[in-house]
Write a structure and sequence with these properties.
heterotrimer, A alpha+beta, B alpha+beta, C mainly alpha, A: alpha+beta, Aldehyde Oxidoreductase, domain 3, Aldehyde Oxidoreductase, domain 4, 3 domains, 7-stranded mixed beta sheet, 6-stranded mixed beta sheet, 33 strands, globular, B: alpha+beta, Ubiquitin-like (UB roll), DNA polymerase, domain 1, 5-stranded mixed beta sheet, 5 helices
Amino acid sequence: MTANTYSVLNTRVHNVDGYAKVTGRATYTFDVKLPGMLYGKILRSPHPHARIISIDPTEALKLPGVKAVVTGKDTLGVKQGIWRRYPELCDEQILTIEKVRYIGEPVAAVAAITEEIAEQALDLIDVLYEVLPFVDDPMEAIKKEAPMIHEGVERNVNVTRHIEWGDVEEAFEEAEYVREDWFKLGGQAHMCMETRATVASYTSDKKLTVYTSTQSPYYHQALLAGVLGLRESDIRVIAHYVGGGFGGKFELDASQFCASVLSMKLSKPVKIVFTREEDFIATKRRTPMFYYVRTGVKKDGTFCAREARVFTNGGAYTGMGATALYLTGFFHSFPYKWKAYRYDGYRVYTNSLPSSSMRGFGAPQAMFCSEQQIDWIAADLGLDMIEIRRKNAHTTGYEVPGQATIGSCGLGQCLDRIEEWIKARGTLPKNRAIGISAAGFMTGGIFNWFDSPYSFSSAVVTINYDGVVELHVGAQDIGQGSNTTLAMICAEALGVKLENIKVHSGDTDHCPADLGAWGSRQTLMAGNAVKMAAEDAKKQLLEFASAKFGYNIIYDLDIKDNWVHNVARPERGMHYADLVKEALRGKDGQRIIGRGHYTPHRKGMISPAYSYMVQAVEAEIDAETGKLSIIHCTTAHDCGQPINTLGLIGQLEGAASMAVGYGCLENMPVEDGKVMNPNLVDYKIIRAPNMPECEIIEIDTFEPEGPYGAKEAGEGLTNPTAAALGNAIFHATGLQMKQAPIMPEMIVNAFKEKKKEGGTP
Amino acid sequence: MEKQLLRFNVNDQEYELFINPKTLLVEALRDHLGFAGTKRGCDTASCGVCTVMVNGMAVKGCSVLAVQVNGMNITTVEGLEKDGKLDPVQAAFLDEGAYQCGFCTSGMIMSARAFLNETPAPKDAMEIRRGIEGNLCRCTGYNSIVRAIDAVAKGKYREGA
Amino acid sequence: MSLKCPVCGKLKKDPVDCARHMFGTGDKPHKAWFETQGLSYIDLLLSQATEPGNKAYIEVGELIARTQQG
């Protein structure tokens, strides 16, 4: 790794929110209490598909302590969705009026003086349903005779996506070896430690304050304005601390909507916190998919053509599902050069909980199929698993035809370093092997499907008398450490020490709009905005220094480590804090304010920049029980310039824990529209004793689009693990696992099948 | 249901509450005494975010009725800091970045503190991992937490170290 | 046996390959051909993409072969 030329970047620092978090002082929406606050509970549909004939709240309203019951008829009935630019994809009423489309869908909400009374009231609301035939399997939902889930949506085909370049048929004809495989990918629950939670407080001056566990205060401000008929600026969204998001908390959810509707009716604060069960059954999850992949290569391993067909289980509503459908097809080509590529994706409505975005956004599913098939092709042709990847790897400047131009790309180095690491591991015991997976991921998306009029990211830097910097950003810290990362960028750009920076985020009344924490966008987009704001402030400060010093015009001034100096003669200068005081007086007592913003322009179809990685997972398989032990996880990782050192390690290890879950633990069976394991006993999250040691090998690149050359880290890292695990199983046992998560019984059955076919057990 | 008198010590302070006997310990701490550092995350005593110490033992605050700890000493995360000085476990968590969203952190720190009180010299990393097995974390992947606990065990935060 | 695509006339090396071509192009004229045969493009596509074995290709290939022979 090259020597660190920066003062603040890539150093081990305490997270700026750390003190609050380790002393129990951090206040989450879960903790918010307001005077006169009522507690809300949601009545949910027990049926996967039914018409609502009537809802009678009379008995519930009689219960002492119950203050209000609302249904969809008490709302504007707006069909909303996060893809605001495309009304046909805004298909969800949240408090549904005419019919329910999944088990758990909200039909009414109660506010009462205690949570217990609100819960009792639910049983007293009389709902008359006309049960309709339901369909919870996309394969059945697409048939002509299947029940229509949304009016006018033929065959329940919600969205289709197509990506193509080159002449696919010709390229297949050129191929010397062709392989096709079919895969089934499961869903996954975000399982944030803090469930969905909101405290909404409407006051009779027509202002609404909403404390909520969100990845994007701005999105929720705008979405609530749309469904409540309020002016956006009359809504204040506050999210000082958020207990995890992972892609599940930037769409409008029932806690925000129902709490707001109840509060508007009563002009009192209403708190709704989902139980863990509600969080499992009635929020949007990772999209389950069927994947068909056909790949043609030359005998020497050169990739020629790939054709993929994907059907996704969209569940009852669209949400971010349209994006997941596109990205899975896009990243299924990553990170390799294909002469010809064709992807067709179909998203199918079903009567089950909606599928949407979850860390990785369709890419973990895509890599599970692609990276395993590549290993199987290599094995079929007697080729080395690293060499086949090296031969076809993305390189800097490569144009993914019609889609993207690759900027910085450390993939080649990643492959080299993993190859070395594997060699150093030496021979492994029986039933244990190393599997690898390469991946590349977006660093923020370019598409404005939310139809925001604002810059994608903005930042304001204000310098106080004592040199402390008030940094206002709309970027949301959900645990990934964006407050710290942005403070570090600000400190570096301004030339001051990190302890000079105070970060303000999570409050739409005080912070500029920002699209929020999803799609791996904040380090690059908010980071660029912060850098611009800090440099603006520095420029203004240096005007005063230039006047003061009166150096010859050829000299430059700069600030570093709180020292304002002549770059050519750094020992000559003054303390930053002293300059600030002089500048303040020079500006008639007005603080220096720097402004910055960022919106990607003309950066291709997907993203301004791509991170790259190669991960090696060492796993041991118990042939009798099918149980997996994940021994080690090493990742060679290119995120351009690392900013937050501890944050990066945390992202790598955290992503691995979630992705291992997707690979072999977090089975989420849905039968007859019902989530079968909506609790933490039956839904298996990895625990400390099973977590492998993780190692990160940093690959140095510089991304011109990113602040100081930085790219994303943390979401891309969920892409390779399930695939690498599958490849470890393949190399240890010869089994080809085509379903994720890989459950022990699948391995046991696969062994049995192999024995039957005469293979060595 | 008739309310009951509960007398207990929380973070070195005596308290008296008159509460519904169905009240869980975590509810008494959060809703009656205002110690909001301890959280709740499930209804099956699975996640551990409600972990506190009862007479020095790590206990899930959701699995015990408040009246069951009558006369006992409770320590929550708020009680670890003494005279403005962080507990070594808290200092280690800061140094290792052993938290991200922070929602599991209070419970995790209490489990870590209780574990180290019982096992000041864990023989290996796996022993530490088992010590926090009851605490789920969705963000960190646990390894930074293990490093933090290990650093305390190895004496990095001893007075004068 | 080699077959001509009934829509665009492209020569494909065998019935399955011809069917694969018809599904693969996915353009309006090729999709429309399925309707003329009383078949559902989307049903067959779903079957091909989700069930190993390419039953849909085989069936459609056989159909094309029959129509071109007879």
